[in-house]
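Hi support team,

I'm opening this ticket because the web form for multi-chain structure prediction keeps timing out on my end. I have pasted the exact lines I submitted so you can reproduce it. The total is 384 residues across two entries, so I didn't expect it to be a heavy job. Is there a limit I'm missing, or should I split the entries? Thanks in advance, R.K.
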Amino acid sequence: MKKSLGAKTIIYPTPVLIVGTYDAAGKPNVMTAAWGSICCSSPPCVAVALRKATYTHGNIVLQGGFTISIPSEQHVSYADYLGMVSGKKTDKFAATALTPIKSNLVNAPYIKEFPFVLECKLIQQIELGLHTQFIGEILDIKADKGVLDQNGQLDIEKVKPILYAPEANRYFGIGTFLGNAFSIGQNVKKKS
Amino acid sequence: MKKSLGAKTIIYPTPVLIVGTYDAAGKPNVMTAAWGSICCSSPPCVAVALRKATYTHGNIVLQGGFTISIPSEQHVSYADYLGMVSGKKTDKFAATALTPIKSNLVNAPYIKEFPFVLECKLIQQIELGLHTQFIGEILDIKADKGVLDQNGQLDIEKVKPILYAPEANRYFGIGTFLGNAFSIGQNVKKKS
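Hello R.K., no limit was hit. The queue was backed up. Here is the completed structure from your submission:
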């Protein structure tokens, strides 16, 4: 019998998403968020939930757009740092070796050094409680050539993304290949 | 310079969420979803996006609740199968060795064999396009004792969750521990 743990906010795995915005003065800012995912295939949309107290929250409302940069394992200290300080008080690009690049599709910056980025136009803002969920239509994904496979598609084993374990507050890399989707389930299917 | 890949629905990592519901006749159903995440800390909420064509979509609207079971690596074939067939035509529990357990908090079943489950009360339904996003308030998490650490908290290294790479349609396990959150970023912070 399963043991009750109470009403916690845990699913595994949780991503590490770096949300890029400009403030009213045009200062680029980036913050780390774990509460987010793809949320619609057509139109292609991503959801990211932020506390109203964050600098990024106001920036997204102001600019109507944002980016999501995906870090690699080698960037884990940067990803952690970007979630520890507020853009209200700190210029996080000036404080690190990271470089902001302005998106050509939305008024928001992304991180040059991270392997790929989603450029997102704000289409819905949903108030849930402590967090506001921003729905962004994905206008483009841009990626470094070094993380693409021979067919020009993103290769997760080259990206080496970070995953996050909530509550325990631990970061992990990705591990062993387990199988192909819409394929290995055939074995179960045949038994039925 | 980054290369444009077009408007794709890719973030890494994406979770593998098994959504449990009852239909109007009380038949338990489970389906696999990858578009979902925690979306609010207070109240604790999870978002999961489903196509309107799925059997689960109608069941959630009907019952006002659902569960999310998280599979382990050893369940990867089952997780894949549960996303390949529709509960409209198939009794997926009868077709597999999996066992439905009725939640004591919402009118929805979860999978006994999977290591932990979120029990969710539907609080919002947001139409985004091809997908509807269901927001569930997490009323409880229940877990097998074998996936808890010495403090009674969920241990991701014991759960061994599955992660999914969209587009490439590949499943992976979790890998190396990279560091503690709100901690390893201190190194970057000190440089500023």
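A quick check on our side: Helices of chain A lie at 55-63, 76-82, 156-159, 186-191. Let us know if the file doesn't open in your viewer.
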